[in-house]
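To make this tangible, this section ends with a sequence with its structure tokens:
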Amino acid sequence: MPYCDDLIAQSEQLFGKRTALLSLWQCMADNFYPERADFTAVRNLGEDFASNLSTSYPIMARRDLGNAISAMLRPSSKVWFHARTTNYDKLSKDSKAWLEWASTKMRTAMHDRRSQFARATKEGDHDFAAFGQCVIQSSLNKDASGLLYRCWHLRDVAWMENADGIADTVFRKWKPTARELSTLFKDKVHTEVTRCLEKEQYKEFDVHHCIIPVETYHGDKGWKTPYVSIYYDVSNKHIMEEVGLMSQEYIIPRWSTVSGSQYAYSPATVAALPDARLIQAMTRVLLDAGEKAVTPPMIAVQEALRSDVNTFAGGITWVDKNYDERLGEVLRPLTQDKSGLPLGIDMADRVHRMISEAFFLNKLALPMPGVEMTAYETGQRVQEYIRQSMPLFEPMESDYNAPLCDKTFETMLRAGGLGSLHDMPKELLGADVEFRFESPLHDAVEREKGQRFLEAKAMLADAVALDPNAAHVVDAVVALRDVLEGIGVPAKWTRSDDEVKVRIAAQEQQQQTAQLLATMQQGADVAKTLGEAGAIAPQQTQQPGQPY
């Protein structure tokens, strides 16, 4: 088929250009991620992954960073993302409530056990930490009853960027069995696959899956979707499935990129790779030196020993009884200089610290202050934490979490997982929905916003003491609403601007009414007092003994 030949040629070109990169990934995996070290080597079941390593510290550094990504950016204990729009501040309360409901609905679907979200992102996190990128496929499951996430090996995936720098063309290698192909694609498989079902149902076939923009695919079906998904049998040059897609299913988060390459790299492993090689060599030397210090090599007098040298606990070494001890000990340790051992240990500790800093392990938490600090000092400390953490968290939020949430939102919205579009607030129809994420960086930024609010309050109090008119400078209601939204207070907990205005007007009316009643009561009291005074006055002017 001409279309299949064109796809095979494209995939061969992309995978061929990437051959040299596999060697680098293999070297990084050997030192930091031995479980994934099968880019250029073949791993057998039961093989010892780290048999070539002398210390596990580089592996643990990568493990800690990979585990921290999910723990800090996607905690399962809370809603770690919030749906927003570009004009979120101007939305009605109902629209904000719907976005919060959609966020909760998405989180429930993503963390469902059948979606395999935790497994896919956990594998992706460690690929991201070790190689600076990962490949996660987000789609509906086979029965279209839920979401499905899968992380694919970087060895099996190649991609290409468009003019905007977006990876829109993705090819993936796959080796399914004849039985699996027949189950998935039924009668659309090649006749060779059908023939193998009788006696070789577990025979593997070279199959590729690609998702490419419709303008680059020369099919003749008049596609009206932006992308086309094609499964084709490479061995038999047979296309098994062609489906139009509204978006790219493959999500490829990339940490750090360089101009001219669609592939990224991990600044952690690039910086730590020389130290990882060094610490392996140093550890071997230190282990050898430590072993010599504990069980030193021995010097023996030739022909004076009658048995093998047995240096183990309880061992006996037989010596010729005629040997003259005045000539020296027949068996003694070899004198050696151990003064360099502490220096070697100190050097190894310094390399450990370098690897830890390369993997940002010293920047994952805000250091606790040792002494009581002022508000200004606390703000400066938070600013320093933000500057140090920005290179770590910013690409993970924008290039990792954001595409995951965007694709999940789109998939659920089209599949009806977020209800009918008729139930969606009208002002959200066609709106550009984006996501805000909970992370240590975001928490630090919002903590700084709250700190600024408190600083503004203190400054305003000092200013009012000098000039009471300064109280009108800060709009406390707007500032408080901004702070509450920043710390994630649900929209249903707060009242809309219109409701607040109605309550303020009602309160002012109530105050005016109470003031009017108080004024009327005061007037009545004055009138009563005057009336009583007028009645008493004639009696007070009458003299005693005078007739009326």
The mean pLDDT is 84. The first strand starts at residue 81 and ends at 85.
